[in-house]
Amino acid sequence: MKIDLTETTSSKINQALVSARRAIGTPAIGMVLTLVIVTDEENAYDALKAASDSSREHPSRIIAVIKRVSRSPRSRRDARLDAEVRVGSDSGTGETVVLRLHGELANHAQSVVLPLLLPDAPVVVWWPQDAPADPAKDPLGALAQRRITDSYSAARPLDELAVRGATYNPGDTDLAWTRITPWRSMLAAALDQQVAEVVAATVEGESDNPSCELLAMWLADRLGVPVERTHSSGPGLTAVRMETKNGTVTLHRPDGSLATLSMQGQPDRGVALKRRETAELLAEELRRLDPDNTYASAVKFGLDKLGSAEAKPAGSEEKPPAVTPAATATAAKKAAAKKAASK
């Protein structure tokens, strides 16, 4: 069921939601959270479809905030709110409210969204693209327990990833991190089978894929070993190699679907490691509403190292300097000594 409202208010939208539920015979509210999507007209369809699919696992009230660009000075002065209410089969297993904010009202989206939030339920805000530099300080982000961004959708993904680390607040997360969950699980399981100390690692993948950088940071942070970043033609992450005292552990995925796990003294094994759709990534993030401390540690670890050495193509003979906390500290001490000697 769909209801279109023109030049409306938050109060009228709430009334339309109640009327729609009664009309389809489901007056009870069984939703577990409010998902606020901040997007534009170009990306609204894909974002709403992903949110609707994920609502089958997490019944929720989905609020899409679309800020309409005002072209003339007169239209910029005029504030208007248009809305579309979807209930029943048109909205997955929850409710959907599409808000279109015109004129000056676009700068005060939080005042429109606040009355529409489910009472006593968590709030999650998702920016499919064009996320603010500091999501926690954004007026809409301040309403949420969890704030989801996606570095991969930015024009310069690695710069965006650096911003995510510099402005991190508890509750922030990134779909670039969610994409590597199967990789992290598989690598951890491999080390459980290969009981040996890891002395070095290599992460291979596309040059502009922030998930590759996050995986390299996670390995360096958790293992405390040098991690080399090499480039490939993709798709996405293509290989991770961990050098241990008992041999090399390799997880290689050349086609974006099936990977091969190789370990010393064991036969190669095929592993399903398919690249996942946005709806699956979103559903995974909605399973937890507490801060992700592992993500926080990883994204902060690599901030000052993203531009320290340019990654080399896969197979290059020249290797970039190892990135470790000890190496960074040593370099800082040498720089300080050199500066003092020059005075």
Q: State the strand order across the main sheet.
A: 1-4-5-3-2-6-7-8
Largest sheet: 8 strands, mixed
Strand elements, count: 15
User: What amount of the residues lies in strands?
Assistant: 15-25%
| Class derived from helix and strand content | alpha/beta
Could you give the distance between the termini? Answer: 75 Å
Q: Mean of the pLDDT scores?
A: 84
* N-to-C order of helices and strands: EHEHEHEEHEEHEHHEHEEEEEHHEH
DSSP helix count? 11
Provide the helix percentage: 25-40%
- Catalogue the unreliable spans: 306-343
How would the global form be characterised?
Answer: elongated
How would you explain this protein's 3D organization?
There is one protein chain. By secondary structure, the chain is α/β, with parallel strands linked by helices. It is 33% helix and 24% strand. It is built from 11 helices and 15 strands. The strands form 2 sheets. Strands 1-4-5-3-2-6-7-8 form an 8-stranded mixed β-sheet, with helices on both faces. Helix 2 (41-54) crosses helix 9 and helix 8 (210-223) crosses helix 10. The longest helix is centred in the last third of the chain and has 18 residues, at 325-342. The radius of gyration is 24 Å and the shape is elongated. The model is unreliable at 306-343 (pLDDT under 50).
